[in-house]
Amino acid sequence: MEIEDAHVPSSLYLSVDGDVITGSVISVDWSATCEQLLGKVSYKFRGSRIKMGWLGDNFQSIEASTSDVEKEKFVRASILRLIEGLLMPNKSRNLVHLRWLLLLVDLKESEQLSWGLEVLAILYREICLAMIPDKAKIDNCMLLLQS
């Protein structure tokens, strides 16, 4: 992920304070959601997930002269990559759930959400599940647990 010019929008940062992320998020049409919020559509959905490789291929860099709307779409894709790649990865490490994208509709509003609490809740759930004798491995947040 490369952003030309050293200016990184403040909306690229995920807050650890603020409103708690609760409830499930559902979209009837993930293609339309991707088109609206990312400006591009992946036709390789797996349920409500898309491939991380698709995000990487379609959102590698952005020009400084790009419109603010396009920059917001790039930031959404970058945050999705950050969520799946580091904060809340699943076992496959190649799919990201689009429920996170719906929380990024308004980037100013998403800055007010407590992403840190969500990460800790997922980590705690995985630690509890790891206590099951036949559980092979912890799905999420191993980097956070190791640090």
TrEMBL record:
A Pfam entry, by short name: PMD
* Organism superkingdom: Eukaryota
Residues forming the Aminotransferase-like plant mobile domain are 14-146
This protein is called Aminotransferase-like plant mobile domain-containing protein
